[in-house]
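Proteins fold reproducibly. Consider a sample protein:
=====
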Amino acid sequence: DLPVIHLAQLLGLAFGVPASKLGMDYQEVPAKF
């Protein structure tokens, strides 16, 4: 995967943004918020 993808994932977790809104398909990430 591209570093940008990982960065997007980290930002998504940091801000509690759903994976679907980031356009990603990593729905296995647990919701921490």
